[in-house]
Write a structure and sequence with these properties.
Length: 222
């Protein structure tokens, strides 16, 4: 029950991978990619949200600058992903999230956002700028935006061993966003939820974070 749809956005049509639950939904989740695109891993995450009872939509955020691109987790993929992330920028990414939220809202669904890595920072902005309940997994580029006030419930997941988000950065999140719920996972590094990559995947942290995320969404999207 998962397939590509087209979203109409300020930057033109953007593909989004949509997965629907088998029965009545608990709400809708916009799944926000890492720098590697709306690839098979992100599509699988969307499908997992659908299995948990949510309508899930994973926009291909790079479509305005590189339609259809999916990147590997090697050095070349990382460098290309960084370049595309910078070319697209946060403002256009939030515009795409806004279009996705509007589309889902027209179906009468309460909408939240869950993002990973760069998408985790986009998820924070979806909260601060669009008012969506949001969950951010290891969003390493959120610090410049932490003075923006939250407009909805917010949850952060961080790996204790994530060198891109050291302990002082986590403390800045605690200090500047005291209303947010923050979880830190001992021994876990960056991208600990990426089960297709044994170099980073931490099953214990991923499963605990997933359970907490589902509970957060069930509470805040009713």
């Amino acid at each position: 029950m998962a397939h590509w749809i087209d979203l109409e956005t300020l930057d033109g049509p953007v593909r989004a991978w949509r997965a629907d639950p088998a029965g009545p939904s608990h709400g809708a989740v916009i799944v926000l990619q890492e720098i590697f695109g709306a690839n098979a891993h992100i599509r699988a995450v969307a499908e997992r949200f659908a299995a948990a009872g949510f309508v899930a939509l994973a926009p291909a955020l790079y479509d305005p600058v590189a339609p259809g691109i999916e990147l590997g987790y090697d050095e070349a993929g990382t460098q290309r992903g960084v370049a595309l992330r910078n070319e697209l920028g946060f403002d256009r990414a939030v515009d795409i999230v806004s279009a996705a939220a509007e589309s889902l809202g027209e179906e009468g669904l309460r909408v939240g956002a869950v993002g990973f890595c760069w998408g985790g920072s986009v998820a924070f902005l979806a909260n601060a700028r669009l008012g969506l309940p949001a969950v951010s997994y290891y969003g390493a580029r959120t610090l410049p935006f932490l003075d923006e006030p939250l407009r909805a419930p917010m949850m952060f997941h961080f790996g204790q061993a994530d060198t891109s988000i050291p302990a002082d950065a986590v403390e800045q999140h605690r200090h500047k966003q005291p209303r947010a719920t923050i979880h830190v996972y001992a021994g876990a590094g960056h991208a600990f939820n990426r089960e297709v990559d044994n170099d980073v995947y931490d099953p214990a942290a991923a499963e605990t974070a997933w359970r907490r995320t589902i509970e957060f969404l069930e509470e805040n999207l009713r």
